[in-house]
Amino acid sequence: MTDWTTLLPVLGESFQQTIYMVVITVLLSGVAGLALGVTLYATRPGNLFANKAVFSFLNFLVNIIRPIPFIIFITAIAPLTLIVMGTTIGTTAAILPMALMAGVVIGRVVEQNLVASDPGVVEAARAMGDNRLHILWAVVIPESLAPLILGYTFMIIAIVDVSAMAGYIGGGGLGNFAIMYGYQQFNWEVTLVTVLIIIVMVQAAQLLGNFLAQRILRR
Amino acid sequence: MSAIVSLRGVSKVFPVQGGKRTGQRTEPVRAVDHVTLDIDEGTVVGIVGYSGAGKSTLVRLLNGLERPTEGQVFVKGQDISSLPESQLRKVRAGTGMIFQQFNLLKSRTVFGNVAYPLKVAGWPKDRIKPRVDELLEFVGIADKAGSYPRRLSGGQQQRVGIARALANAPDILLADEATSALDPETTRDVLRLLRRINKELGTTVVVITHEMHVVREICDTVVMMESGRVVEAGPTYTVFADPQSGSTQRFVSTAVHGTPEPETVSRLSAAHPGQLVSIGISEAAPTPLVSATFERHGVGSSVVFGGVTEIQNKILGTLTYELTGSDHAIDAALADLGEVTAVERQTAAVERQTPPADGAVPHLPVPANAGEQP
Q: Structure pTM?
């Protein structure tokens, strides 16, 4: 029998740690990724701020970081984590590699959605005498809002997924809980319960994302 | 009339895109090639040509969306070819533009779309609403202010586009294939609206199109482009009545029907034993004059094929007559007509000399005001 009276508080704490890591990571990487994605889009040849050097550099950077398996990425940037966060272990230390990796991926997701948008509206805004920065903010992003919301939903779920690996560097969270109390103690019940909680979290995020995107698409 | 826009030796060359990596350098694209052109204030000008002729690039040079590689573009006397971006924005704000695909902001309502250029131009909030209402009223979609563009028909969307382009009361309105995505009836409505804008607001309208009937409906002057060059330019009636270049002739024939194709000539010859002759109908040779000439020479005539239209309130077209009478009388009558207009004897075996004329009215019983097909 599983001793839920002692496990429940640990599960509660793990849940909080996951929420903490995911929320902070989503906020940081969301803003950074948006900036990166919009810059990639805007500096692309033929676009508003076409700049081959900047585009090539950022494009190269994204292509370098993205394929690194996350578990290796955590250890690879440990020196940077130490400088920035002051420690390489714990929940907070896990946020930096998570936010960096997620920021790069979000950047690509944002870029792809913007590139797929209609260049005609950008031209129309330019023909009206609008300035280019304002066009990015007032035309390009709002016109792609629905696919962007779906892209972000996808990324939030990916971040929940990745947060499970934070346990490796003592980051805690639901992933760590499932490994320690489930897998390592041969307790499938604990693993199953953890998995169910994660599924519910992911479903909730997806439903909310779909709902928001639908509302925008329906107009 | 003074020129509101002047181009002096303007060329636009696009560098080779990195698409082809075959080792061989492809030539840079010379989209606009040494164009010198004046657009008179208060007129409706049609810039015509096949796709790839450089019309769209040319129109984008007029509001600084593209910079010329060489030459100068003057808008209201100001050379805009070397202006910095911030100055160009002012030029653009004073020039309206509408597009083939309307290019409305789908994330904003009709009201939001029309209000956008006003916000960009820094209008105070309390003045934006009355101005937008006025514009929507003008283009006839005041009831759609709260709708999103997706909910509107193509014609309604283009009206929003026009209202948006007129928001800052521009002196020049550029229409880039503005009716090409619309059905014929909606096209006519939009063209009528453009005409009204020109008449009531005095706006100079530059219409880019590959459809000659658009030119026929609203343009005062035509500029024919081919491979980036202007091959012909002049008042619409002159260009239609007497097209000089081959491509202009082909274009004109798409809007002014009436010359029968060889197959039609064969059919007509079989049905009509008399001599078949196609006569160009124009200001110089209106139908009463043609009829009178035949009568004077004692030649019997009846129209068997053709189409006549009017351009800038002047008649234009081609009618094919079946003539009966002595060869001598027919020859004399045709010689008289040949002085003032185009005369072409139609024989079934003869190779066709004129381009196809789809939609012409066959077997028209009476001559005179034979209306042309819509």
A: 0.83
